[in-house]
Amino acid sequence: MLGFLLARMGVDAAVLEKHADFFRDFRGDTIHPSTLEIMYELGILDEFLKQPHQEVRQLSGQIGTETVTIADFTHLPTHCKFVGLMPQWDFLNFITAQAKPYPGFHLRMQCEVTDLIEENETIAGVRARTATGELEVRADLTVGADGRHSVVRERAGLPVLSLGAPMDVLWMRLSRHETDPGQTFGRFDAGRILVLINREDYWQIAYVIPKGTAEELRGRGLAPFRAEIVRLEPFLQDRVAELSDWDEQIKLLTVVVDRLQQWSRAGLLCIGDAAHAMSPIGGVGINLAIQDAVATANILGEKLRQGPVTAADLQAVQRRRTFPTRATQRVQLLVQNNVIKRLLSGSKPISPPWIVKLLGRWPWLRRIPARVVGMGFRPEHVKTPEMPN
Ligand SMILES: Cc1cc2nc3c(=O)[nH]c(=O)nc-3n(C[C@H](O)[C@H](O)[C@H](O)COP(=O)(O)OP(=O)(O)OC[C@H]3O[C@@H](n4cnc5c(N)ncnc54)[C@H](O)[C@@H]3O)c2cc1C
To answer: Among 234, 361, 380, 382, which is most buried by a count of CB atoms within 10 Å?
Structure first.
């Protein structure tokens, strides 16, 4: 997204991606109203909405035996009053297609950054491994947007503040039938959380487990695991046998929550999960990463057209994005520690907590979580111009 925004305003941007394509099990499929608003501001929303996707206007879940609605997006002051669900490879392919016409956009796939080039205590670019050998890419600014296991931030020696997470996620698919329920939903029960994402012909399933227990679960074998899924969602009984190979079909997605205390060094900036790894709670990490990209382009874009940026310019990005990052992580930690942890360690039947019951009684209250999840704290707006090609 940052590569697209910079190229759009006439800055030369090289995007290096270690994989050959985007077709992998990414973490997260949610495109929130704040991101859709950015698409609108970029003039690509109509095109985007032509891509296959689902629209979620209310977030519901089953807690114990009660079905509850937690968030209602239909009152947000945005053009799209829903969360769009789209596999992340489709989203990234779409953004790439939008960026490619700009001559400044250079996407290099199968190009894995392995190290930083440092000259006079300034980061001057990266070293990368490609299918045809080693590559050096020099730049006025290097941006680490390489996710929670960022090589860039590690090589830059930026100190990480780890905030901890009580869970990991098992990620798998089961086929979807015409007669199945249509909406995307979560099922919360003592010791278990199951989230089903409707991807038309199949269900993308997230099974939340206490951190570090994946191996133990795997050791017990597929039969008890399948039985557990059916216990939570009985309608999956007729197809749960599709899960026949743990290694091939069930992926472990580890959850990490952390943030850098310092996002930049001379010549280098980290954004997205590389600056602040997000928990899946609220499904906001992708959107926060995109907001970082928009803020970075807004603050640095014009200066980058002239040449290198200063340490103060880079710190301005961190200053702008620290509040939304901290506030979002604080909410995520509150939910992780007070709800998820208790739920995963409990064995007694559960019922919705009082705060969720309030949301059931007064539907207008559902606009508050919708705002926090759908728009986030301090939403960014595109302020960078499009330069003629
Ligand atoms: C289980 C789980 C579920 C989640 N669900 C959601 C959700 O539903 N919605 C949501 O918004 N957020 C969700 N999140 C959070 C979300 O995944 C992240 O916050 C978001 O993906 C961060 O985006 P990013 O671009 O910074 O990093 P990433 O999405 O991790 O992208 C980093 C990219 O850099 C590439 N890369 C990595 N290393 C190198 C290298 N050395 N050289 C070149 N390229 C490299 C990777 O291949 C990847 O393409 C979830 C997180 C977890 C753990």
So the answer is: 380
